[in-house]
Structures are given as structure tokens and as C-alpha cells.
């Protein structure tokens, strides 16, 4: 095991120097006064239990607390006044009219989505026509769709793909 004797020697020299300085200090008549400070609890419950009623410290604390409460109340009042009042909500339509509206919207939305899907499938079928000499999986890979979806498009548009790769 390696022991660093230089570090040990340096620590010992520091301790010897401190001891000699302390000895010189006391030899020249130096004194040390020890001042004991009472431990003051910072807990408000204990501190409040030792307060004398009517003492200036108690009344000052009460003034500070009252001022804080007053300030908080004023700030809350300002915040309440500065907030805009919400507009009244419009009346909700009856359940029958909501149902009728939602059915109409659903029909038009569904029809629009169906038309878009049909147009997309027709465009994919047009792109697939020059590739009919390839297998369906290869065509699907070229178009970036699944082979199952390409099969559905082929059936819908009467496309015949090659049987082998």
C-alpha cells in the first residue's frame, strides 16, 4: 500500500504552525471572549406564545398583517374589475334540430369523402395501367400502397395483373 508521506508531513507542519501561533498569541497576553447567544426559535407558534399582549412588537406585527390583508383585498378587487365579463352563451338548439342537422352534415361529409376516395382509386388505376405486365405486389410497391388495396382497385376497374413476378 502506498502512503504519501509528504502530505502527512505537510499536515503535521500546518498543525505545528497553528500551535506555535496560538502559543505566541496567548504569550503576548491575548484573550478570547466567549459570547453565548440565546437560541431564538424561528417557529411562529413558539414565538407567538412568548409575546406579551400590548407590546410594541406585537402591535407592529399586527399592523403589518392587517396591511398585507388590505393590499391583497385591493389587488383581488382590481383583478376582478379588470377581467372582461364572459359573453352569454347562445341557446342550444333543440334535440330534434340537432339530430336533423347532424344527419345532413353526416350525409354530405360522407358523400364528399366517398367521392374523394373514388377519385383517388381511379387515379391509382390510371397509374397502374402501364404496369399490368408486373405482379400486383410490384405495382402496389411502385405506387406506394398495399397489395390488398391494389387488388381492390384492380377488381373495381377490371385490371388484370401478371400472375408471377
Structure, described:
This protein is mainly alpha-helical and 165 residues long. The chain has a domain at 133-158. The chain is built from six helices and no strands. The chain has helices at 5-27, 44-49, 56-82, 95-128, 136-143, 147-157. Residues 59-90 have a biased composition (Basic and acidic residues). Residues 38-101 are annotated as: Disordered.
Short description:
The chain is 66% helix and 0% strand. The chain has 6 helices and no strands.
Give me some keywords for this one.
165 residues, mainly alpha, 6 helices, elongated
Instruction: Please tally the helical runs, counting DSSP H or I stretches of 4 or more residues.
Output: 6
Q: What is the C-alpha radius of gyration, as a whole number of Å?
A: 46 Å
Order of helices and strands: HHHHHH
Low-confidence stretches: none
Helicity range: 55-70%
Report the portion of residues in β strands: under 5%
Q: Which structural class do you get from the secondary structure elements?
A: mainly alpha
Q: What is the first-to-last residue Cα distance?
A: 75 Å
Region (Disordered): 38-101
Biased composition (Basic and acidic residues): 59-90
Amino acid at each position: 500500500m502506498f502512503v504519501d508521506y509528504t502530505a502527512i508531513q505537510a499536515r503535521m507542519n500546518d498543525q505545528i504552525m497553528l500551535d506555535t501561533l496560538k502559543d505566541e498569541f496567548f504569550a503576548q497576553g491575548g484573550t478570547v471572549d466567549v459570547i453565548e447567544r440565546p437560541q431564538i426559535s424561528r417557529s411562529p407558534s413558539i414565538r407567538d406564545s412568548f409575546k406579551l399582549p400590548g407590546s410594541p412588537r406585537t402591535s407592529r406585527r399586527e399592523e403589518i398583517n392587517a396591511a398585507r390583508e388590505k393590499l391583497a383585498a385591493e389587488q383581488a378587487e382590481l383583478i376582478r374589475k379588470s377581467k372582461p365579463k364572459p359573453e352569454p352563451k347562445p341557446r342550444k338548439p333543440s334535440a330534434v334540430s340537432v339530430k336533423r342537422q347532424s344527419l345532413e352534415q353526416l350525409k354530405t361529409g360522407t358523400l364528399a369523402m366517398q367521392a374523394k376516395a373514388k377519385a383517388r382509386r381511379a387515379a391509382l388505376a390510371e397509374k397502374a395501367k402501364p404496369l399490368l405486365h408486373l405482379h400486383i405486389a410490384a405495382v402496389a410497391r411502385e405506387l406506394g400502397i398495399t397489395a390488398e388495396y391494389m387488388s381492390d382497385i384492380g377488381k373495381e376497374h377490371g385490371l388484370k395483373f401478371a400472375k408471377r413476378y
